[in-house]
Sequence to fold (114 residues):
Amino acid sequence: VQLQASGGGLVQAGESLRLSCAASGFMFRIYRMNWYRQAPGKQRELVASFPGVGLPTYADPVKGRFTISRDNTNNRVHLQMNSLEPEDTAVYYCNAEGPSRNYWGQGTQVTVSS
Fold:
């Protein structure tokens, strides 16, 4: 199983980034795909979630700014992040949540300067 996250970087407040996660080794289409983030000194928190069937959901701080999407043909999940704020600075992790299984990627750093 692999979850390879990419797309992080350093941006200024108000700019955008698009994170991608390439998945392999499991039945991607039936898994709930999540993006979490962890800021220094804080607990990891769920940012956005896209179930295998159904609609995506978002944490309140990112509603209206972030959009999660999934590509079941190419086993990828994306996180489009617009209007970034310094408070969005964190390591972002791709997560696959399935029946009796939970997989994590290695994380990608997002830094937003004010």
The chain has a mean pLDDT of 97. The longest strand covers residues 90-98. The two ends are 37 Å apart (CA to CA).
